[in-house]
Amino acid sequence: MILTADYFGDDDVVTLARDLLGKKIVSRSGNHLTSGIIVETEAYSGASDRASHAFPNKITPRTKVMFGPPGVAYVYLCYGIHHLFNIVVSQPGTANAILVRALEPLEGLEVMRQRRNSHQLTNGPGKLSSALAITTADNKTSLVDNASTIQIHSHTTYHDIVVSKRVGVEYAKEDALLPWRFYVRNNKWVSKFD
DNA sequence: ATGTCGATTTGCT
DNA sequence: GCAAATCGACATA
User: Fold this and answer.
1) Is the CB of A51 under 7 A from strand B?
2) Residues A135, A83: contact at Cβ < 8 Å?
3) Is the pTM of this model over 0.90?
4) Cα separation of A87 and A114, whole Å?
5) CA angle (A145, A146, A150) in 5-degree steps
6) What are the beta bridge partners of residue A3?
7) Is the CB of A194 less than 7 A from some atom of nucleic acid strand C?
8) At a CB cut-off of 8 Å and minimum separation 6, what does A9 contact?
9) Number of C-beta neighbours around residue A31 at 10 A
10) Does nucleic acid strand C have an atom less than 7 angstroms from the CB of A53?
11) For strand B, is any atom closer than 7 Å to the CB of A56?
12) Nucleic strand B under 7 Å from the C-beta of A48
């Protein structure tokens, strides 16, 4: 079942980030279908969270998409190299987003191996975008239409979930300590940062 | 107009 | 373990 704008419209971005574990991301690019189960996420909140690009509710050409409707992709270029995939959530005007950091590969494994030229397919935010052929061209694209090339589907439920601080946001001062990262315990596809 | 820096990955030492 | 890669967004002037 494809997840809807109503699902992503929840204003509680942290609860939503945790709930996304076990959901499936499906990507269609050209002839190829690739998919994976979400096993690691992080929550970002533009109003109060120094780690968010939109802090403190700062509207710029880049962050504008996060103030829009839920269920839309926010993809940005990191370190000039990596495309990082986020899902815009919460009601319009609230700049919340969820970074997908890792997937357990499900379909299209051979295509992913070719795109990655590696067996480390989706165990990190830059890697999974590469494996699913997600780029900044997908920024602002809807994830909740039946015609969307990237969709999120319900799939399974995990019960053993680890909560930790987020990765790579030391610059966010005290907000770097927020327990807003979630991952599936003992899942081999979780990113290598701990 | 220019300088700084990053929600990461990779390869080399 | 460390540093390069690589570029656009943003702040400052």
Assistant:
1) yes
2) yes
3) yes
4) 26
5) 70
6) none
7) no
8) A70, A71, A89, A90, A91
9) 6
10) yes
11) no
12) no
Contact between the CB of A82 and strand B at under 7 Å: yes
- Closest-lying nucleotide for A44 based on CA to C1': B7
pLDDT digits 0-9 by tens, A127-181: 999 999 999 999 999 999 999 999 999 999 999 999 999 999 999 999 999 999 9
- Residues 61-120 of chain A with CB under 7 A from strand C are 61-63, 76-77, 79-81
Between CA A39 and CA A55 the distance in angstroms is 26
Main-chain phi, psi angles of A156, to 5 degrees: -150, 175
Model pLDDT for residues A45-57, shown as the tens digit of each residue: 999 999 999 999 9
pLDDT over threshold 90, residue A193: no
> CB of residue A87 closer than 7 A to nucleic acid strand B?
no
